From TrEMBL, chains A, B, C, D:
The lineage of its organism: Bacteria, Bacillati, Actinomycetota, Actinomycetes, Kitasatosporales. This is AcrR family transcriptional regulator. Residues 40-59 bind DNA. The keyword Glycoprotein does not apply. InterPro entries: Homeodomain-like_sf, HTH-type_TetR-like_transc_reg, HTH_TetR, KstR2_TetR_C, Tet_transcr_reg_TetR-rel_C_sf. Keywords: DNA-binding, Repressor, Transcription, Transcription regulation. It comes from Streptomyces collinus.
Length: 208, 208, 208, 208
DNA sequence: GATGAATGAGGCTTCATTCAT
DNA sequence: GATGAATGAAGCCTCATTCAT
């Protein structure tokens, strides 16, 4: 879980919360579009209509912006996931709910998800971003557990390679952030439905 | 299709082809591991046991290495894809063959695929990398066409949103590059089989 | 001959030893003249006839230059001091030798001494420069011990406040770095003699 | 003599004199502890419990604070020195009085003295701080004159190198600002006595 | 084929300062 | 008297690239 209270940081980093949020949204957009490394602080500032140095009144560093974006996203994601996991649903319903919440999160935090997809892997090596790794482990446990429960309950096919399936499902969901556009043709729920239909029933037509 | 022959390069950049290949493989590895932007020429040189400047005897620029890696990968990929697409197979068999070839390509050119995944989107905007966009369009045509043929032939479900399905399938295949390790537990063919089984039949268990 | 032992250091920082020495001497001069903080990397580079960035081929950072200057100076100083302290001299002779060696060191490493004087106090708080504090403690022990030995041996006046005297003596010696010019009217040995005469005999004229 | 009245300052910079004094004392403390260059306006403001920008209501600039601190200190110092020099004392008594007043000044204005010690040399080059150089010249004249008078009057040893002695004495007195702590074991007068005893009589024990 | 040294552009960050409120 | 937000210059450092040897 990310940072909490911060007592004696150089820059108290408070400022009006709305302005911060605004700036973070802008930063997230640029990060998502160009990649974190390729994004210069000046590009963010340009997009915000200020000078590069002025960003440092609000944030400690370029990295701290990234940090705030990612941890904010994960915090919210886990609030939803935990609600689902604690609801006592069956494995199939859990899977459906997780997938649906995931697409909703993509809808809400598209940029953060896109950044997470592109950067989390190599960020995970930095101690400051250890929470990304932790989150990913919780993630794996939640999804793997659901699949295993489903196999045990004879809701999912017994011949599944659960780990492989987990990876397929996980990646396909999140990678949707690379093409999804909020307000487009499909609502997140619609995409979730289509996706679940494919994963659960397959795309082949069965003459039954 | 990408660059052809080095016609007007300042530095004739000949050097033994094997050494080039070696160095490209090293570069691809570092690019894949750290991202293109975050990879410094010095890191590549370090990994190759030489000094940064020395790389410029073999290559014109850092970008030209990336270019060579990506175009080499795409050239090979399309040779395989074209063979499949020209073989006169039915839609389901075509899908199976494309998926299988894709996983094989991941097995052979893991680093290139990983780089392609991470960088192709923003590289596509640069004129020099227009071939990435072209390739992606050919790609879409091949997969979409196969899916549509399958729906028409009543091999795939009639209620599929073909574009959505295309994206799901495409992403799931390629994103495997982020976790696949050559020489690991599963052969590419095995992964392809599992994956196709999921996509074609679904993961739900049906009491028939 | 490039990198040798250092396995994964970013910059192996070897380069021709003479060039390093040259550049360090230039840096020391500028640091001494303007103060470490007020010295910009560009000023050093200007003085060396190169661009600011080029310094980073030879050194890791501005601070590492300072570090190398100071530790080089202290290493040499302690070699001389240790020789004196291990020579088995009486307290007065020890004092004379320490003072003389100190002025010689000022003559040899004027800039380093000047920097040490101005910066060591606030640098000491940084963990990286802990050796400055250690050195200063060894220093104190050597001088204090000599004074105490002298009082016990009735070579120095019994009413001395030894700590106060230590500070006076120490400061007077080192502060000379702020006005001493090598090659000027007085040789280091001459200055040492005058200084010792004052400290040992006083400046008052006694009718004996 | 330093600046006089604020004639042409943009900001009339009046504010309650006590508040100014308070803020100047805080600034002096930080300047002394960290060095002028290394002291940011924000550090001063932090120490004063306000924001950096707010200081500009009271002062024109960071430099003007330094200026006021140093000129205030020198004004007071010279008031005392002039009193001593005009009192018609003999050379030895003059020396004793100057030393004593100096240590008293260190006691009263420790921070200003410390700043003066560290910064006056390189500040002297700036036209705005020319008064530092003037002061130093007056200083030299006063001390050198006293020593020379003493030699002529056979109060000090005839073999003294007067300039060297001047430097030794001057430096040792002022450098005490680097270790002196007001309210510590020794009063300024006590330190002066010890110091004068050492300088006048020497530390060697004479069997007479 | 490779090294060593340098260039020059550009990146992140700091900081004195300003100014409307 | 003070705050909050911003400016703009400057600082340290990185890095792709060049080139004489």
């Amino acid at each position: 879980m990310p940072k909490s209270s911060d007592s004696d940081h150089k820059k108290t980093t408070v400022s009006a919360p709305e302005r911060r949020e605004e700036l973070l949204a802008i930063a997230a957009q640029v990060f998502a579009a160009q990649g974190y490394n390729a994004t210069t602080v000046r590009k963010i500032a340009d997009a915000a209509g200020m000078l590069a140095g002025s960003l440092y009144y609000h944030f400690d560093s370029k990295e701290s912006m990234l940090d705030e974006i990612l941890s904010g996203f994960l915090d919210e994601l886990w609030a939803r996931y935990d609600a689902v996991l604690g609801a006592g649903l069956g494995p199939r319903e859990t899977l459906e709910a997780l997938v649906t919440e995931s697409f909703r999160e993509i809808d809400r935090h598209l940029d953060a998800v896109a950044i997470y997809q592109k950067e989390s892997k190599h960020l995970g090596t930095q101690p400051h971003f250890a929470y990304l790794v932790e989150s990913q482990q919780k993630f794996e446990k939640a999804w793997l557990g659901t699949l295993e429960r489903g196999v045990a309950a004879k809701v999912f096919r017994p011949d599944l390679d659960v780990r492989l399936t987990y990876r397929f499902v996980r990646d396909t969901v999140w990678v949707a952030a690379s093409w999804y556009r909020p307000g487009g043709r499909h609502s997140p729920e619609e995409i979730a439905r289509q996706y679940l239909s494919m994963v659960l029933e397959g795309i082949a037509l069965h003459d039954s």
